[in-house]
Amino acid sequence: MTKIHPFYEAHRGAMEAAMCQRLDLAEGMLRERTQLSDMDGIRQEVMDEFQIVLTADWLLRMAN
User: Fold this and answer.
1) Using CA atoms, how far apart are residues 57 and 4, in angstroms rounded to an integer?
2) How many domains does the chain have?
3) Nearest partner of 48 among 19, 25, 28, judged by Cα
């Protein structure tokens, strides 16, 4: 498993909370524009992808 960059690990809680807040704010628009009803599933997918974003910076730095 890929390790999360130390900066992101140190701020992980705040970053996850901010992402959850953004999803809360966008929920109505997402439902309206996408006609999707499984917001819990969508929320989980977004948070799963967010975990990839947290590790991507670390991976890019290792490649350089």
Assistant:
1) 9
2) 1
3) 19
User: What single string gives the DSSP state of each residue in 27-42?
Assistant: HHHHHHHH----HHHH
Q: What is the pLDDT of residue 32?
A: 87
Report residue 35 CA to chain centroid gap. 21
pLDDT at 30: 86
Is 42 contained in some domain? yes
Average pLDDT along the chain, 64 residues, taken 10 residues at a time: 74 92 92 85 91 70 60
Domain assignment present for 1: no
